[in-house]
Request: fold
Amino acid sequence: MTTASARHILVDSEEECIALKERIEEGEDFADLAREHSNCPSKAQGGDLGQFSPGMMVKEFDEVVFSAEVNTLQGPVKTQFGYHLLEVTSRD
Reply:
C-alpha cells in the first residue's frame, strides 16, 4: 500500500495561506512558520503529520498528497478545517 509523509500549515483564510506561501517561497522556514501560525496541533512538530495511507486524511488533502511532486509546496488547499499549505516529504 502506498504511504506518504507530509507537513502542513492550517489557517483560517485563503489570504493568510497565500501570504505564508509567499514567505516560504522567499526563503522563510516552513517549520518555523507552522509553529507560529498553524491552527493544527501538528504545529508543535513544525507541521509534520508523519506517515499515513490514502483515506486517513480528508479527501481534498489526500488528493494533493498522493498526486503532487515530493518536496514541492502545494496550496492553498481548502478543506472543512480551513486552508492548508502542504508539502509531501516522502511517498512510497
Observations:
- The first helix runs from residue 14 to 25.
